[in-house]
Amino acid sequence: MKNPFLINRTYTLTYITAWMLIAGIHAVVLWLAGGLELRMAVSDSATFNILFAGIALGLWYSIRYYDLNKAGMLDRLLNHLLISMFVLGVWLGLGFIILNNLWTDQTLYQKFLVSSLPWRGIAGFFYYSLIIMIYYLYINSEDRKTRISKESTLRLQVKEAEIDRLKAQINPHFLFNSLNSVSSLITSQPEQAREMLVRLSGFLRYALENRHNNLTSLSAEIENIRYYLEIEKVRFGKRLQFDFIVPEECLTMTIPHMILQPLVENSIKHGVYESTEPVKIELRASCNQSENLLIELTNDFDPEAPPRKGKGIGLINTQNRLFLAYNCENCLEVQRTENRFTIKLTIPQNPNHETPAQSTDH
Predict the structure, then answer these.
(1) Which domains does the chain possess?
(2) How far apart are CA 112 and CA 107, in angstroms?
(3) CB 227 within 8 A of CB 203
(4) pLDDT score recorded for residue 98
(5) What is the distance between the terminal CA atoms of the chain, rounded to a whole angstrom?
(6) Taking a C-beta distance cutoff of 8 angstroms, is the pair 316, 362 a contact?
(7) How do residues 90-102 score in pLDDT, each as one tens digit?
(8) pLDDT digits (tens, 9 = 90+) for 246-274
(9) Tens digits of per-residue pLDDT, 160-206?
(10) SS3 347
(11) Rounded to an integer, what distance in angstroms lies between the CA atom of residue 73 and that of residue 356?
(12) Which residues of 14-51 are buried (b: 16+ CB within 10 A; e: fewer)?
């Protein structure tokens, strides 16, 4: 860590200006109150203040590499007391030698120089304390910035790890069922089996290749959902119907990667599985003046069918991901009517935009 007074030109000029101001005031006091000739007052002030300005820069290294965490308060006080005595001795000694040799023929000034050593020592100790305090404040400030930066980086890493964990939760039953469907189609309908493998490959490629990308375009996400639904349609046939109603201007908007996957799985699980009649899954999107992307995912369900077992993991994971990505607790809204189940997502395109607070339990 560089000396705070030498970090940049502004700080250096400020340091020099401060000492010039101190030296000027010192010279005026010696001239008017001390009764010294102006040239003696200027040389006296310049000598002692220039010396201490140089010594003060060196004091940085006496505390920068001193382990403050291992030293107690008493140890620090004793350490600084010893350093200050040494520094003041060197400072007063050098100043005395220089000025005594400069004004060898001035007996009155030499007497003044000797008699002034005690109050110079007091002033020097004040200088020392002030400089050390500035250094400690700077070190504490930089350490705090470093600590905040590390904590922020750690929080970001934890957040990204949590998002990756949530994104990685692809339903294994889907893979098993898809492979079983392919297996059954290989002998009876080899062409359909081949198409299903192509779709499954596209789905898995999208899931794995973009796993570490937090955001993707709505068009890419919809294409992946279409792969998924076409695979499931092989199993459910006419019972599964789906439609996408998305304006062209919304396709380029961003959306968390694989955010729709668990929601579509939820629609199939609670809609298609439990119904003997065709069930339609409909995805609608709309844009809100480039601030929000609004997505509605709706599916029919049989109100008389017994509810399937489950803990709502898909909805919980989606809500958690939206909170981690946008710090938004109300980006997911659930609405249920007599035979329609709707999930509404609000995806902020502007991170500072706040979404309305509204939520309903499934």
Answers:
(1) 4-155 (no CATH), 168-348 (3.30.565.10)
(2) 9
(3) yes
(4) 92
(5) 56
(6) no
(7) 999 999 999 989 8
(8) 999 899 999 988 888 888 888 888 788 77
(9) 666 555 555 555 666 777 787 788 778 778 888 888 888 888 888 88
(10) strand
(11) 53
(12) ebeeebeebbeebbeebbeeeebeeebbbbbbbbbbeb
How far apart (Å, rounded) are the C-alpha atoms in residues 38 and 27? 8
Counting every residue written for the chain, the total comes to 362
DSSP annotation of 271? I
Tell me which residue has tokens 């304006």: 247
Q: CB-based contacts of 160: which residues, under 8 Å, 6+ apart?
A: 214
CB-CB contact of 321 with 256 (8 Å):
yes
Is the Cβ–Cβ distance between 275 and 310 less than 8 Å? no
User: Which amino acid appears at position 281 of this protein?
Assistant: I
Q: Which string of DSSP letters, residue by residue, matches 154-174? A: HHHHHHHHHHHHHHT---HHH
Cβ-Cβ contacts under 8 Å for 336 (sequence gap 6 or more)? 342, 360, 362
**Calpha distance 240→279 (Å, rounded):** 5
The pair of structure tokens assigned to 213 is 């990308």
Closest CA to 94 of 130, 151, 50, 41: 50
Beta carbons of 210 and 168 less than 8 angstroms apart = no
DSSP string spanning 306-343?
Answer: PPPP---HHHHHHHHHHHHHH--SSSEEEEE-SSEEEE
State both tokens at 35. Answer: 């009764």
The CA distance from 154 to 88, in Å, is 45
pTM higher than 0.70, yes or no?
A: no
Q: What is the largest CA-CA distance in the chain?
A: 120
Give burial (CB, 10 Å; 0-12/13-18/19+) of 342.
Answer: middle
Pair 268, 240: CB distance under 8 Å: yes
DSSP letter at 288? Answer: E
SS3 32: helix
Q: What pLDDT sits at residue 294?
A: 93
